[in-house]
Specification:
34% of the residues lie in helices and 28% in strands. By secondary structure, the protein is α+β, with helices and mostly antiparallel strands. The longest helix has 17 residues.
Length: 198
């Protein structure tokens, strides 16, 4: 799904405030603390609470393996002022229906500053511009309006509601479903350029 460009662990995307880089073993403690926070974990399908260290170790190994093969792309978020300190994760993986799916989380201390919107926009740009993506799906728990706002701000269109498996929550849960295609991404990217130039 992703080209050779992304398959080296020196690959990174820089935004105004963030570095998006491959996750490393040094991110383990930050993931345990930030993703293990109940307020974060409860919105995620595969992150149990409490979060055991072996689950994080397996996640890191899997993320790096998928990045290396191009099967998906999982990137750690870090502030440019502290590039070694993970504050969240953003990823695109093959979806169950064949459409790639975007997922993400951000540590609670960093909520409300627009950082996830910045990260999602950057990864979407990489997906459509460098990986030749045509369609991207995402979803957010209905009880998570902040995640919905991130997707809408990045051009995703709400396509309805449904249920998705949340194995870490032990049930299928209701979600808002979203979609972004290449044409809408282009239009949103052009609009962002015009806004920044104004």
């Amino acid at each position: 799904m992703f080209p050779d460009l992304t398959r080296d662990d020196v690959f990174r995307i820089e935004t105004r405030r963030l570095w998006l880089r491959w996750p490393t073993a040094k991110d383990r403690d930050a993931i345990l603390k930030l993703a293990g926070d109940r307020a974060v974990a409860e919105m995620l399908a595969r992150v149990p609470h409490p979060l055991p260290a072996p689950v994080v170790d397996a996640f890191l190994l899997q993320a790096r393996a998928e990045n290396a093969t191009g099967a998906g792309l999982t990137l750690a978020l870090a502030r440019r002022s502290a590039p070694a300190s993970l504050i969240g994760v953003v990823a695109i993986h093959p979806g169950s229906d064949g459409t790639p799916e975007l997922g993400y989380w951000l540590g609670q201390p960093y909520w409300g500053a627009g950082l996830m919107r910045e990260a999602v926009r950057a990864l979407c740009n990489a997906f459509f511009a460098y990986a030749g993506g045509t369609d991207l799906a995402s979803s957010a728990r209905i009880v998570n309006p902040a995640s919905r706002r991130v997707l809408e701000a990045c051009g995703f269109v709400h396509t309805g509601t449904g249920t998705k498996p949340f194995p870490a929550r032990g049930a299928d849960l209701p979600v808002d479903l979203f979609h972004l295609d290449r044409a809408r991404w282009r239009a949103c990217a052009a609009e962002a350029v015009l806004t920044e130039a104004a």
